[in-house]
Write a structure and sequence with these properties.
This protein has 142 residues and is mainly alpha-helical. It has one domain (15-136): Four Helix Bundle (Hemerythrin (Met), subunit A), CATH 1.20.120.50. The chain has 4 helices and no strands. Helix 1 (15-37) packs antiparallel against helix 2 (43-70), helix 1 (15-37) packs antiparallel against helix 4 and helix 3 runs antiparallel to helix 4.
Length: 142
């Protein structure tokens, strides 16, 4: 059962970003499927999900920041967004490092990713796409 289903409300209109966001939704749903199964999640499955998440973040954040630069956004806006990306990475690394001391690491990860989808993708990334659209019409990025 998918907790999140891709819809137009997630779409930014930036194809590469939207494709990557669809992959993140798939990862969130994979974690959810493991939670629904209810069994203890094998270390190799948890490791695989964290690895996929790290690969996603590494590629996506570089690409999204490239999109912002090429879209003409100002350094302050890009810096704010990049700081959020850094914070995401730090939190995922901290969860990975603390997973053995957590009673339910997959549940913690799932909650974090669901919150990220809500806040960052539906909020910050939508604002980024609107700002790029404004710059394209000649409105200054600042």
């Amino acid at each position: 059962m998918d907790a999140f289903v891709w819809s137009d409300q997630f779409a930014t209109g930036v194809d590469s970003v939207d494709t990557q966001h669809q992959h993140l939704i798939e990862l969130v749903n994979r974690v959810g499927d493991l939670l629904i199964a209810g069994d203890t999640i094998p270390e190799e499955k948890l490791t695989s999900i964290f690895k996929d998440l790290a690969d996603y973040a590494r590629f996506h954040f570089v690409d999204e920041e490239r999109v912002m630069r090429e879209g003409g956004l100002d350094a302050t806006n890009i810096g704010h967004h990049a700081a959020q990306h850094k914070n995401f990475t730090e939190q995922v690394v901290a969860m990975w490092q603390a997973r053995e001391s957590m009673s339910r690491p997959a549940e913690t990860l799932h909650g974090f990713l669901a919150a990220w989808l809500t806040y960052h993708i539906l909020g910050e990334d939508q604002a980024m796409a609107r700002a790029i659209g404004r710059v394209a019409t000649g409105i200054p990025a600042a």
